[in-house]
Structure formats: C-alpha cells, structure tokens
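in:
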C-alpha cells in the first residue's frame, strides 16, 4: 500500500504535494510556517503598531494577527468584521525561521489556505478520495458510515489508528453526520450545492497511521462529499472548480444507485422506491472528460486514477424474489457478495470475484456504454455496498445501521500501485 499509482507518485513526490484542504498542488519548498511561541504574534503586532499606520494583519485583538490566506479560503473578507485570526505568528518565508524569535518553526502550512501540512507529506503525499455519484445515490450516508467503520472496525483489524487532522474535521463529522445518524437515528438531509456554501468545500481530513511493519506509515485521507446536482454537467463542474479536486484525486469511488437504474427500478417490488435517475454512463463520461482535459490527456487516453465503481443500497437487492422478473435483478444465495473477505489482509481473490459479478450485472442492468466508460480508467474494480443495511421507511432509521462491505472499495484503493497485500 505504500506505493502510489503513477498519478499520485507524481503529485506526492518529494517536493510537490496536493493540499487535501484546498486541492492546490504546492511546492513543499515554498510553504508557510507558524511559530508556536505565542509571544511572537504579540511582538509582530506591537512592531506593526510602533511603525505607525494600520496594517492588514492587525485585528481587533492585540494578541491575534489576521490570517489573510485563511480568511480568503473560507470566503471571509480579511478586512471585514470577522476575518480568521490566529495567536500564532505566520511566517511567509520559505526558510521556516521565525522572523520574530529567530527560531525554526515546525508547524508547516499550505501557502494557499493555511491548513496544516503533516509530517510525512514528502514521503506519502496525500491520498484524496472523492466519492461521486448522482443526486440521492447515497454519497453522504456512505461517507458517514465509512468513516465510522474505518475508525472502529477497519483500524483495529489492520493495526491502524485513524484520527481527525483538525478540530474542524471532528466538528464537521460530528455535527453534520454522526449525531444525526448514530445518536438521533435519523436519515441525513440532501447535501447543499457548492454554490451556496463555501464551507462545505472543505473535505474531512483524517490521518491513518499503520503502526506495524518496519517503518510506521501515515496517510492523509480526504473525504469529499459533493451534492449530486453539482455533477450534472461538465460545465457545471468546471464553473464550481470541482475539476481540480477530481483530477488530483488518488482514487475515485463512483456510486451507482440500483433503484435509480430504469431496468431495476421497473422490476423491483418494494416500498419507498425513488424515481428513476439520469443516465449514469453520461455522468461518468463527464467526469472522465474533465479529468482528461485537466490532465492534458487525449479523448481516448486511459486515465490513471483508480476507479472503484460501487453499487449502493445493495441491501434492497439481497432479498427473496417475489416473481421471475425480480429474480433476474436480485443477488441470489450463490452470489459472491455472501462470501466474507479474509480479515486483516487484502483479499484479492474475493474482490476479483465480486468485481466480475458486479461488472456483468451492471453491463446487463445499467448498460454496455457504462461498463465501456469504466474501462477508460486503467485500474478499475466493481463493488456492492450498503451503508444502512436496510431500506429506511421514512426519516427515522428504525432498524438501526448495519453496514455491508462499505470498506471494500477503500481497501482496494489503498492497495493500488502494484504492491499487494499491504493492508
Ligand atoms: N436501502 C438503502 N437506502 C439508502 C442507503 N443509503 C442511503 N439510502 C437512501 O438514499 C437516500 C439518499 O442518500 P444520500 O446519502 O443523502 O444521497 P446523496 O448521494 O448524498 O444525495 P445528494 O446529497 O442529494 O447528492 C437516503 O435518504 C436513504 O433513503 C442504504 O445503504 N440502503
Ligand atoms: Mg449528500
Ligand atoms: Zn491548502
Ligand atoms: Zn517565533
């Protein structure tokens, strides 16, 4: 798992690093720093006021300087009433020496958004996973449940520890996902469009530390939840600058909702059936076009970003058929989905078996055009997951949350790049 794909080797090599917060590819030799000595911000502000006049860094508080880059990143006016401020002096000099106390500063910041750059960025780069798919496919529930599973089930299984990178991630996950789903037992609301909420642009970032082996490895994982309507057309994705994070991703999870697929929708018998959705081949085609444009590839060139295609809500496909028509779209008892993966390792055989079955299923039920578009991604695999484990009736999750195989695409993505059996 320590080896990256071609794509991420390029972006995670010794001097360039993709900031998982703002998706800028930055040169690690030209970054900003922050001094942990709180006397330095005070000294900086005192010097500014002694030299007379007003400075763009002076806030209302005498011990806090204005973080101009951080303010702009969060859509706040640095000269306005509520800019982002900090008690820790920011050093915009790539030497990393504090211009106040003269000592080296160890806290490294992205020069664009002033979020932290972790230790190990040189070696491991950042691993940005984006979860994409049309409206209502189940992206938010999948991300919410995946994070919980990775922390509480995957990590102990694989000898890892997953921790949030910043307090904002802790807060965002808790307030926007965990509380509602796991404490209140309610479904999540549809995600707001990027257009409206700039704060939603920030992904949730976690550090995943593998403790076993000769050298501990640390991965920076960014989970990015998009609103389905923002992915409707290539133009819209460009307008909202979604193209940069998609094109710089180390892995894409593309979700397909079986209930929105016309062939399945018309045959399945169930309550609370959602309406049929748009053509998923078109949406994945748009994503492929955006990546090729952004990464200067020709229209038929293979894409190097690994693609995991996952069928969501598979709980609804794992019931007893009520008639022959249903029988043709459900996963019977001989399905490979019922075979457990071997724990604590990358079970390639199990994943290959599932991938072959789901690919054939999608070719039949979705379209040949879809499986062809998937082939445009050099490294791809198919999965079937369920975040909730059952179909919710109404807004409350009366049957609780019992996820199925949510971690599979993630285990596969972590094992891209040639070295198998790493997690
Ligand atoms: N049966 C079943 N239904 C699910 C599952 N996950 C989500 N759903 C249903 O699908 C609906 C949409 O899920 P979301 O996670 O909000 O979908 P989304 O892709 O984030 O949608 P947007 O944010 O609007 O783009 C939910 O309200 C649930 O009713 C699952 O694992 N099983
Ligand atoms: Mg959502
Ligand atoms: Zn940044
Ligand atoms: Zn200092």
């Amino acid at each position: 798992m320590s080896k990256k794909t071609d794509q991420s080797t390029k972006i995670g090599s010794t001097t360039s690093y993709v900031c998982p917060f703002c998706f800028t590819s930055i040169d690690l030799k030209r970054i900003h720093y922050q001094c942990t000595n709180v006397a330095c911000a005070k000294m900086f502000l005192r010097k500014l006021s002694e030299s007379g006049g007003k400075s763009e860094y002076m806030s209302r508080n005498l011990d806090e300087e204005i973080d101009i880059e951080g303010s702009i990143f969060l859509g706040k006016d640095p000269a306005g009433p509520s800019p982002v401020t900090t008690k820790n002096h920011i050093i915009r000099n790539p030497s990393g020496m504090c211009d106040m106390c003269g000592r080296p500063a160890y806290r490294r910041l992205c020069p664009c958004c002033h979020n932290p750059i972790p230790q190990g960025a040189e070696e491991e780069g950042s691993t940005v996973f984006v979860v994409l798919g049309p409206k209502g496919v189940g992206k938010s529930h999948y991300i919410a449940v995946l994070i919980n599973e990775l922390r509480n089930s995957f990590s102990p299984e694989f000898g890892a520890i997953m921790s949030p990178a910043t307090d904002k991630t802790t807060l965002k996950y808790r307030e926007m996902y965990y509380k509602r789903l796991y404490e209140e037992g309610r479904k999540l609301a549809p995600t707001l469009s990027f257009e409206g909420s700039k704060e939603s642009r920030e992904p949730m970032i976690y550090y995943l530390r593998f403790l076993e082996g000769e050298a501990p490895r640390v991965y920076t994982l960014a989970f990015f939840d998009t609103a389905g309507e923002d992915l409707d057309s290539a133009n819209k994705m460009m307008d909202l600058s979604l193209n940069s994070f998609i094109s710089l991703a180390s892995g894409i999870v593309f979700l397909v909702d079986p209930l929105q697929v016309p062939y399945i929708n018309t045959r399945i018998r169930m309550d609370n059936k959602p309406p049929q959705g748009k053509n998923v081949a078109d949406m994945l085609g748009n994503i492929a076009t955006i990546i090729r444009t952004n990464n200067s590839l020709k229209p038929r060139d293979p894409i190097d970003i690994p693609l995991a295609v996952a069928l969501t809500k598979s709980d609804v496909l794992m019931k007893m058929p009520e008639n022959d028509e249903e029988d043709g779209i459900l996963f019977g008892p001989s399905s490979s989905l019922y075979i457990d993966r071997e724990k604590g390792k990358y079970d390639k055989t199990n994943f290959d078996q599932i991938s072959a079955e789901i690919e054939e299923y999608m070719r039949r039920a979705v379209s040949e055009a879809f499986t062809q578009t998937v082939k445009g991604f050099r490294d791809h695999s198919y999965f079937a997951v369920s975040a909730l484990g059952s179909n919710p009736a109404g807004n409350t999750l009366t049957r609780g949350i019992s996820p199925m195989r949510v971690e599979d695409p993630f285990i596969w993505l972590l094992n891209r790049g040639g070295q198998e059996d790493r997690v």
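note: Residues 139-158 form the longest helix (20 residues).
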